[in-house]
Amino acid sequence: GAGVSQSPSNKVTEKGKDVELRCDPISGHTALYWYRQSLGQGLEFLIYFQGNSAPDKSGLPSDRFSAERTGGSVSTLTIQRTQQEDSAVYLCASYQGASGIQYFGAGTRLSVL
Amino acid sequence: GNSVTQMEGPVTLSEEAFLTINCTYTATGYPSLFWYVQYPGEGLQLLLKATKADDKGSNKGFEATYRKETTSFHLEKGSVQVSDSAVYFCALRNKAAGNKLTFGGGTRVLVKP
Q1: How far apart are the first and last CA of chain A?
Q2: Is residue A72 predicted with pLDDT exceeding 80?
Q3: Which chain B positions have a beta carbon within 8 Å of A101's beta carbon?
Q4: Contact A95, A35 (CB under 8 A)
Q5: Are B37 and B89 within 8 A, CB to CB?
Q6: How far is Cα B47 from Cα B97, in angstroms, rounded to an integer?
Q7: Which residue of A has its CA nearest to B48?
Q8: How far apart are the first and last CA of chain B?
Q9: How far apart are CA A96 and CA B32, in angstroms?
Q10: Quick check: A104 and A91 in contact, CB under 8 A?
Q11: Is B55 buried (19+), middle (13-18) or exposed (0-12) by CB count in 10 A?
Q12: Mean pLDDT of chain B
């Protein structure tokens, strides 16, 4: 596609449930990032995939968070046993080194009740 | 580590007024600097960037100059329009940190007719 696509755009879930958020990056972009935008914490890095290298998971807030990237393209961010503090907008970005620019999707707004 | 500090908002202006949003950073090495904009209900969009000292990024009438001596990247626009109402984020990217973006807290700008 022309841009980074994220789904769903909105997700409402109950505390304790698991959720999966999907990101489809720009074709040909080798790097993919997940960020979280929340009222209290601003925009924070979660995890980064670059080609076939091991992901940089240094920003994941707890072991309830995990992500995978299949076939070097689509990525899924999974949050297990969701808590109310997980409510935020989850942003995905893909990056192609030549331009030095990260392109962002519209985000998934997660609300944990 | 890397950090970005930008002025808190909201900033309220009248149309055709001059806008400045201050941004300072702390980083090791030579980061690239960015301004991203988030219009109401939309995702993050790159506004402009600068990759080395004294570079000036510009787009849509906005400008920012990479000042290494003052570790700053202030955003300016000479005459704002109502359509410039948005949240503006200053960010840096450092290869030593895996190219992930470190964001400032964002500044909400409201332009009144």
Answers
A1: 33
A2: no
A3: 46, 49
A4: no
A5: yes
A6: 22
A7: A101
A8: 41
A9: 15
A10: yes
A11: middle
A12: 94
Q: And the tokens for B27?
A: 């980083």
CB A46 within 8 A of CB A60: yes
pLDDT digits (tens, 9 = 90+) for B20-66: 999 999 998 889 999 999 998 888 999 999 999 999 999 999 999 99
Whether A1 has a pLDDT exceeding 70, the answer reads no
Which chain A residue shows the shortest CA-CA distance from B93?
A100
CB contact (8 A) between residue B43 and residue A91: yes
The pLDDT confidence band at residue B97, using thresholds 50, 70 and 90, is confident
Is some CB atom of chain A closer than 8 A to the CB atom of B56?
Answer: no
Q: In DSSP terms, which residues pair with A94 in a beta bridge?
A: A32, A103
In which residue are the tokens 């940190």 written? Answer: B97
Q: What confidence tens digit (pLDDT) does each residue in A40-70 have? A: 778 999 999 988 888 999 999 999 999 999 8
